[in-house]
Amino acid sequence: MNWQQVLEDKSLRDLPYRIELNAQGQIIMSPVKPRHSAYQGEIIALLRRLNPDGRVLAEPAIETSDNVKVADVGWMSYERYLKVISSTVCSIAPEICVEVESESNTSAEMMFKKQLFFEKGCIEFWLCDGDGGMTFFGKDGQLQNSVLVPGFPFRIEI
Amino acid sequence: MALLDAEEIRMNWQQVLEDKSLQDLQYKIELNRLGQIVMSPAKNRHAILQGQIVHLLGGLVTEGRTFPECAIDTSDNVKVADVVWVSAARYAIIKAEDCCSIAPEICVEVKSSSNTMEEMHLKKELYLQKGAVEFWLCDEKGNMSFYNKDGKLTNSLLLPGFPAHVDME
């Protein structure tokens, strides 16, 4: 399956799962829980407030070397945004890709996605753990704080 | 979170079974070891071969049960074999289970274009680990290959009469 087929398949709409693809073209679905969504919403609000330039994207689908993966939140410069806005899937990753950890995803999976997003041009990968604790990564490893949005808090309250 | 333990795996499959939004989807549903749902598109060609294998198998066995889409609790979470044959003795164990705690004696996978050979061989290992005696693979053209824990066989030892090719016509 490719992403276009996923988008066209009516039976896949409105499922309470986040949909991605793996390298074999199979659909990978992860359960979405309210707590997870609440963190996503808070991160979007904070990003918009602290970094008004560019665009904040909820659940951007990104074409990676392991097929289409979806980040929980992305922030894109306006320049990148113009490149991807009319396509079915982001051919270039947002500068900031954020993942919220949930029961269904493991650290191994998060680190794998971090690599995939960096390969596609991501500059910072942010991880929000189950208690709202934030960790920031650059290409070369963990950062003390975000360089792109230095004021972003280390803990998010929901 | 580390790998899911057996209890959580069963709970996960239970959740899949209880989720109404997943019923009637045209995909084969399995779980991976991260507890995510893996859905493979179901194609006519695949379903026809599956039906043919159920028919052929059912005609050759004298006991036990032959059926499609059998969920098996493996070390990589729940996988679904396309066709199985299970002896009466094992059937007594699995018939009340949501997913098989022991694999049926014969587990058959029909390969489709969305499956890699690597994936098929992983399933072979998983089913054999869970007690399958033979793993049969049917390729997209209907050619059969037969395996047991010692490797590839020239024909099935459990059912020597099963053809090497399944005809779609």
Entry keywords:
heterodimer, A: 158 residues, alpha+beta, tt1808, chain A, six-stranded mixed β-sheet, two-stranded antiparallel sheet, 4 helices, 28% strand, B: 169 residues, 8 strands, 30% helix, globular
Biggest protein-protein contact in the assembly: A-B, 23 and 23 residues
Give the uncertain stretches of chain A in residue-range form. none
The helix/strand series of chain A, from N terminus to C terminus, equals HEEHEEEEHEHEEE
Quaternary status of these chains? heterodimer
Whole-number tally of structural domains of chain A: 1
Determine the strand fraction of chain A and express it as a percent band.
Answer: 25-35%
The structural class of chain B is alpha+beta
**Which percent range fits the helix content of chain A?**
25-40%
Approximately how much helix is present in the residues of chain B? 25-40%
What can be said about the biggest beta sheet of chain A? 6 strands, mixed
Radius of gyration of chain A: 15 Å
Distance between the termini of chain B: 49 Å
Strand pairing plus helix content of chain A: what structural class?
alpha+beta
- Classified in CATH, the superfamily of the domain at 43-153 in chain B is tt1808, chain A
CATH homologous superfamily of chain A?
tt1808, chain A
| Helix run count of chain B | 4
End-to-end span of chain A in angstroms?
Answer: 37 Å
* CATH class descriptor name of chain A: Alpha Beta
Mean pLDDT of chain A: 92
Number of strands of chain B: 8
